[in-house]
Amino acid sequence: MEFIIITGMSGAGKSQAKKCLEDMNFYCIDNLPPRLIHNFIELSDPAVSEVKKAAFVIDIRGGQFFNDLKDSIETLKREGRNFKVLFMEASDGVLIRRYKETRRDHPMSPGGSILSGIREERAKLSEIRDISDYIIDTSTLKISQLKQTIADLLQEEEENERVNLTINVISFGYKNGIPLEADNVYDVRFLPNPFYLKSLKRLTGNNHKVREYVMRWEEAKEFVRMHHKEIQYLIPYYIKQGKSNLVLAFGCTGGQHRSVVMANVFYELLSGDGYRVTLHHRDL
Question: In this structure, what are the phi and psi dihedrals at residue 48, rounded to the nearest 5 degrees?
């Protein structure tokens, strides 16, 4: 599970950030004590939970519980957890105006000076700000602009991860052996073989007639759907483990027809997903 910790200045837009992430299909929890992050991670074991992305709002409202945030972040980093810290802030003047408009007390100075509360909170949060992955100043942002800013940050993170991975798609024939460099091997010998059709025998999987024949079968279409989804699921975990090169090998008997078609199909699909992909027909 990947998750985001939202924190920062009171009145800077943490609630709006949470709503933005909810719109992006994040499971969000407001005012979570930092020590309970581990409990939530255990409850969200992928084997029993459908929660893949979560966001936790953790701020000064937690009182003494908030003091655990820095230690919790450092522990999560040591454990190699997949998370980011998003820090929300705004200028003193903007925060004062927002508090006056809502007629709320600042949590650091209930019934007292808003400015003194803001300054005290800013000093208290300085260490958390220093270790945050993203810092968004909402002083001049509209809600629509905040949502776009968050979306851009997450998209940039995803694209940076993809750039670090190269996927090598290979076709091969089992009669010549399985490629030693293969990470995942897909056997497509269960599909009808164009080799036994006189009009297709001397052609290869690069020919559109052979491709049309192989992909006309429902089992071929289902194979593509299932394994494309499987590969999409696995890739983030390979990236998380630091893998920079992934080799996907598709094999048929001779490496001329069915495996070539499937390698071409998956090369196109994964390229369309935004990954850096290479293609090699070993036995063609």
Answer: -125, -5
Please give the structure tokens belonging to residue 120: 């005290």
Decide if 136 contacts 88 (C-beta within 8 A): yes
For 8-65, the pLDDT digits (tens) are 999 999 999 999 899 888 999 998 888 888 888 878 766 556 778 899 998 887 777 7
Crossing angle of the two packed helices 14-23 and 143-163, in degrees rounded to 10: 60
Beta bridge partners of 184: 248
- Helix or strand run (H / E) with residue 222: helix 218-240
Domains of the chain: 2-162 (3.40.50.300), 165-281 (no CATH)
Report the percentage of the chain scoring pLDDT > 70: 95
- Taking alpha carbons only, the member of 110, 115, 262, 111 closest to residue 184 is 262
pLDDT in tens, 77-106: 888 888 899 999 999 999 999 888 887 888
Beta strands in the chain (DSSP E): 2-8, 27-30, 53-57, 83-89, 134-137, 166-173, 184-187, 245-252, 276-281
